[in-house]
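User: I'm putting together notes for a lab meeting next week and I want to include a structural view of one of the chains we've been expressing. I don't have a solved structure, so I'd like a prediction I can at least talk through. The sequence is below, exactly as it appears in our construct file.
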Amino acid sequence: MKPDKTADELVKYIPQPLWNNWYIKEKIGKGAYSSVYRAEARRSGRNDSAAIKIEPITDSKNRPEKIQEKRTMAETESAIMYKLRKCPNIVAYEDELLGELRVKDKSAGYYFIIRMELLDNVYRLMTKKKFDYSEENVLRLAIETGTGLKAAHDIGVIHRDIKLENFFVSPEGTYKLGDFNISLFSSSTRSYAGTKGYMAPEVFRMKDDPESSYTAQADIYSFGVCLYQIMNGAKLPFQEECKAEEAINRRLSGEPLKKPANASDAFGDVILKACAYDKADRYQSMDMMLADLKKCCEVPAENTEPDKDGEAQESSKPLNTDLLLRLIAAVMIVGIIAALIFGIYSIKSDKERTETALTDTREDFV
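Assistant: Thanks for the context. Below is the predicted structure for the 366-residue chain, given as structure tokens.
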């Protein structure tokens, strides 16, 4: 095996079981630097499952400095996940393993494995048409994954690759953010990284101006593009008008974005602010964006809602639950007051009738 072979070819060189009891099963995902597999542990009376990410730490020329660079990147990802392990909206870290890769009794680098909770991928659910596109659900996704992104920013991490493929959902329905493979502990960076379809303009400009830099605001922009795509029939900005590459170039050039087709005015405004071309017009922090997202949950939805494929369809305006509860309470209070008045009147009438009856009775005896 050559040192630069992928994780798929690397698996057969990894001794199993891992962590004494874990066995690699089928492949469930792939990234630019690693592959993800389902792993299984045999217990007494049950089998446990987890996701394991395998990253080759190799170099085609076997250069020690390149191998060390890749090892540092892998260890940074595990350090970030470990620090965020208590956040309910981050894919949960379970364990890690660094092993030496030996081929024909010669060192060919290393492999790094992270074990984490096994979840469904949101983008995969969308492609299989199993995702709930209702604004209520998408707002919940936005708040929960946004909370995960805020937690990362709070510990000084720039994610650098926010995209729908990195959104996950648990069996209980909790949305989570994952894949910190190219993330950094930094307040700003000059490195060009990410996925072009979701990339912030300031990151894209790094190709021509390596002396410029960007901050965690670039993550907020990418996060906004993700929400735009979900609320726009699964299409990125301008993609309904032209091919993907042209659509991306129009967005990165600063052409104003239209409101997502299926978003209410309130939610659409939040998304467009997150996607603002000028950083000064964009949310300055995830705290600010989350506050506005939560306000959207208090605003009644408008008269369109997406169907299962993300297309808008006519529907009646949902009833304002808070108003309904207030009306019910008012009716109950009026009813209670009326009952009390009727009760007092009845008691008074009974008393008068009793007194009259007693008077009549006394007169009969006189």
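A couple of points you could mention at the meeting. The longest strand covers residues 46-57. The chain has three domains: 7-116, 122-314, 320-366.

User: Perfect, that's what I needed.
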